[in-house]
Fold each of these.
Amino acid sequence: MEKQEFTITAYTENHVGLLHRITIIFTKRKINIESLTTSESEMEGVHRFTIAVTETEEQVQKVVKQIEKHVEVLKAGYYKKKEVVQQELALYKIPTESLTNGLEVERIVREHNARFLTIERDFVVIEKSGYKRETKALFDELRPFGINEFVRSGRIAVARQQHGLGHDVEEMLMAEA
Amino acid sequence: MGTLEATETKNKTAPSAPERIKGSEAIVRILLEEGVDTAFGYPGGAIMPVYDALYDHQEKIKHVLARHEQGAIHAAQGYARASGKVGVCLATSGPGATNLITGIADAQIDSTPVVCITGQVAASLLGSDAFQETDVIGISMPVTKWNYQVTSAAEIPEALSKAFYIARSGRPGPVVVDITKNAQFEEFDFEYKKTTHIRSYVPVPKLDMEKVKEAAEAIDNAKRPYILFGQGVILGNAEKEFKTFIEKTGIPSAWTIMGLSALETDHPLNVGMLGMHGNYGPNLLTNECDVLIAIGMRFDDRVTGNLDKYAKQAKVIHLEIDPAEIDKNVPADIPVLGDAKESLIELTKLVKPNSHEEWLQRFRDCDAMEQEKVIKEELNPNTEILSMGEVVRIINEKTQGDAIIVTDVGQHQMVACRYSKFTKSKSNITSGGLGTMGFGLPAGIGAALGAPDRTVISIVGDGGLQMTIQELATIYQTKPKVKVLLLNNEFLGMVRQWQQLFFDKRYSSTEMINPDFQTLAKGFYIPTNKVTERENLEAAIEEFIDYDGAYFLEVMVGKENNVFPMVPSGSGVAEIRLE
Ligand SMILES: Cc1ncc(C[n+]2csc(CCOP(=O)(O)OP(=O)(O)O)c2C)c(N)n1
């Protein structure tokens, strides 16, 4: 089976240590986590993990079952690339002087659908969200102007259907009440 | 740690009235509420308040002082597996807790319910590299079903109540509750409610009757159905339902090492043991059945051998409580998720009565071959050299299969598991998944305390015995009636066997220059005997078993005997070698 991009989602309790418990599952199988984001979810008191990996579907299925097996995990699942709407956020810091030598940077920023977050005396910060390849493309174009700092967030994603995994969790919690 | 309240628990049992007591006293009261009468452990600074509280409850909770924390946890495991109750283990912070890890890992892979309570440095010192501080939560996380650090007394009731519930429910396993010293000292208003539910945890998946129907149909249509059963039958208290099921369907059934004793050895449908050193027919015929019915077993690689050559022809039905086991190693055509007992009851209702005489005969023919090529000589050797098998045969004759057989790891383990006769469930206690040398002696102590009315025989090798030999002192102090049988081949036998077969007989660091075990046993004040000649063997075993109390028996067996049959690693099950 071929490796491809997957987004793993887990709805969990908000407990200290759970992050470690979940990453152990990947470490044990020597699977590289490309990015991992934890945040609140649409449900009060329910947390959400979003994990990006490139793996075989079979391996992803096994990992998801191991995640869901944990006492404090409500539900876990995975999506293929086409099954999610996903974004990553990138920040680029470049010297302000690169703006004063012509309109080149402004043109690049516009063309990439990016924006200036802040313009200071010595530096400016540009923000761009999108797929990794898009934030990477902007990086490559800005590089000649000198990038002082660059950071990209983990992937966040929602299911490309009205009711994703969270719907099951909601039903689970309703049944509880 | 996060708040416990985030996990709502619905509690059905009536709460006790609040009372102002110390955290340490609360811990002991909770043990009593959970029905604990025996705990295993070792004291130290960070757990001292709990030991102090135990002092007040000595008539109700017997504390077994081991000689090493590894001994304590293996004893708790043996206790749990012999009694079916949760084993409880106490240790101090730092080295006390880290010494538990091997046993926790063993309990995790063999699904044994154990609650470990570890002391921890005061909450104010956490993260400061304080004296005897280790990150017990971090270290134990990969090998526990659940763990939790308590930093204030108020958290103790809910944390421990969840610990017991999680350890024993669903697929059982070990949990660790790490309790800082300040929490043990603090006073608080104590109330206790047993946990009966955790919203994010589904211990037993709901049985899907459609799957049961599908399974029943496949079983009814099978020409050569074959059952593999594991510890799930024992853990699910489903021995009776299992027997009813196989008797109605007439299907030949083989046990995994962890499934041993779930059915009586002599049952006509019990065809023997699976695995690398299992029986010939059960391995060979795995690749000839048309429907493979796995019940409460997890297709360990020692059972399947090379997966590419494993039961490719068969339709696989998998009855299992843990969804993560489905399709993990062997894809299931019909997964039946649920509790073993309930699944078997429903399945038995739907299947038609049947018999498979011709197919069963294939197993008998294989058995005849194995008898001829391996078993006859192992049980009644034609040489002067004593074999492990003949020792086990005589034990069978003396106990009539009534004993609990505990083993360590190695050749003696394989021989004991192959040849021991069982008539009652929960009678085989061995380190199956982890293969932990040093398990046998302490687990035997725990088993003898967990099943005081039964004869408990702990069979160990000279290598494994020396990993936890100090527990002989625990026997002297606590007086469990455990019988320790040392099968001494003066080698790390199992490794030597591999060196002989696969490494050109290059016996690298496997010969044991041993101490005098007789003097040692005497030093621990345990009645002892040693057999070197066949003519003394039977009488010695008789005395060993009949003696009212612990006893140490050493039998000098062949130095270079091998265990057969064998599925060499990397081979398929059908490539099993008889010699
Ligand atoms: C803690 C641990 N260390 C190493 C091993 C590897 N190992 C498996 S069997 C074995 C030999 C056991 O020798 P002994 O206890 O004398 O039993 P025998 O095989 O001779 O019956 C060894 C070293 C193990 N299983 N556990």
Amino acid sequence: MSSRDRATEVEGLYAEAAQWHVNAGGETIHAKRLSGRWRTFKWLTASVWLVFFLGPYLRWDGRQAVLFDIPNRQYHLFGATVLPQDFWMLSLLLLFFAILLAVVTAVVGRAWCGYFCFQTVWTDVFTWIEERLEGPPAARRRLDQAPFATRLRARLPKHLLWLVIGWFTGFSFVAWFVDAPTLWRTFFTGEAGVAAYVTVALFTAGTYVLAGFLREQTCFWLCPYARIQGVMLDPTTLVPAYDTGRGEPRGRLRRGGEAAAGQGDCIDCNQCVAVCPTGVDIRQGQQEGCITCALCIDACDQVMDKVGKARGLIRYASLDELEGRPTRPLVLRPRVWLYGGILTLALAGIVYGLASLAALDLKVLHERAPLFVRLSDGSIQNRYTLKLLNKTPEPLAVEIRVSGPPGLEVSGLERPIQAAAGVVTPALVFVRVPESALAAEQQPVVFHAEARRGDGQRLDTARESVFIAPAP
Amino acid sequence: MADHNPFPGENNTGHIWDSDLRELQNPPPRWWMIGFWTSILWVVGYTILYPSWPVGEEATPGILGWTQIEEYERGVAQIEARRAEFESRIGALGVEEILADPGLTQYTLASAKVLFGDNCAACHGSGGQGNPGYPVLADDDWLYGGSTAKLTETITQGRKGNMVAHQDILSAEEVDTLARWTVEMSQGEPGSEAGWQLFSTKGCSGCHGPTANGVLAELPGGEVITVGAADLTDRIWRFEPGGYESARHTILYGVNQSGVEQTREAVMPAFGPTARVEDVEIRRLDPQEIKKLVVYVHLLGGGL
Ligand code: SF4
Ligand code: SF4
């Protein structure tokens, strides 16, 4: 390679570097807001978060329908009470959502980022407020340059409103963990717990900073999901994409609205860039900054309508489709099946878990040192520790019956066990089997627990354990 | 350098090699710098408030006066305060009353488990399952009585069995007859006539009781008087592995006989607060601890 060629190569690299638009937050992005199909859709998906704000006020059976009662280690989900013992279901739930994220991303790109993520939704609401109070992007950019005092006066209401939203976010979060009406009563009189105040303070500050200032910077530099989801995309994934074949070579329309001969459909109006909340140019292809919010689709469609061309220059399309390769329908993609299978399994586990959540749970621990004891009359005695978990809110008197080898005698269960509400009550039980009935080294014994609630509801459960004797 | 920068207007640092390779200057984003300086401020604040800089042997104490040991002690005090309620109730109640209260019993079991592990398990096994030569605590065979009062007495004062060695007292056939008789008795059989004859005339019943069940007399209320001699009528052998050879050995050499080389050893030390070991008074277990151990041992299985 001649030194001249080398110089051109290197200059080429620099030219490319100059093209790199590294958005490090030096300049605030003031995205234009347009109405449109996807805009409406985005509001609808964002409204899922209303559940977050309103959920704590749902009541069920005289208490908060969903309450994560950490001090008492109880989790109420409508009629069901989940105790730490049932927490294996949480891992299934986490698995479910992790795989859901994977499958959705593989199929339609970063749909979580674009439509559901709290970072996106809160930023969206914050910028909506900004637009209401300070006007369209041009006015806001002008304000950015204004002297400090002017800026302060013009922007104070916005910041106050942001802080109120931040506070409300924190308050609603806390309301999932303590009784909501009580929280309203105690919060302003200083009687709520320290944890509540600290949480609300952290959320207020966090929401204010993340949605008010960091915005797309969070997605660019802080959020791990942005990177994780990036690697889940493949050429078959549907993402908002610019149809290069149709759009290029781009060029401005001449006066009178005609395109030059051989010109593509993109009229280089930059509307797609103007509306992008992360400030990227989708025409350069799918990129890390794109949260697939589809707002550029709305923008471009409106432009196409105006210039009388078909919509969809920017549309949901896969790389395969854009490059003219055959596309495979969803049902033929192994990845979808694999993810779907895991999803179904996790969901089945959770459903099974919730369906079999008994109000009374019995665990039987067989003593291991010693496994058995010979008594003076030759019979063999085994010692068991019963653990009775009472998930009802009332104390229960639990009767326990033991069935097993013939002639078995039990001590420790003469009186019903008083199982306190919401906790595990242990009890010691001794089972004796006469020498004549010792048929095998191990024989099954079954403990049947039975109790009646105050309203007459009968609760019962059983647990099999083993009776161990010396080899006959 | 900037004077002869061949790339004017570019954000390079002025470091240029080979006439075109150059270092560009892209400052970190502002929010990053803010974070950076905030962290440094944080460190400064932290080192002022908390123990940090090593100065000689010690570290600067920090103006909050926080120390790790204090935090630990606060934690210990917290748990002690929670235990205090149970401990004072255990102190005020008798063993039977503790056993009648399931909650208190559970506390006692948890607390005594440690005591049992430290003091008893070495000989009697972690679950009271016994060891060769050391009695099982989980069965219902008690040499000195299994009532909670007797258990308290045993733990506090210790026990030392005593059985005469019969090697010079009985003839070989007599020893053989008695050993066989013992085996028969342990299997629930009536026992040979000759065996009973020897048992009653050679002084055995003086300790093992007239019916050979180790009981000298029964008191009203279920208590028994024993001298710690084994119950010969039950299925449990005091000295493993049990059976003819074991019985013969015990009859011949006795228990705890000084001067008899093959004698059985059966000594349980005293665990009472004023126990003496070789004339030195040592503190072992206080009455509260013994009370907990009695509950624990009682519930190993033999007390029921
Ligand atoms: S990149 Fe992260 S923060 Fe941004 S929208 Fe996606 S998930 Fe949310
Ligand atoms: S490029 Fe389009 S889809 Fe991607 S973030 Fe910007 S507006 Fe949303």
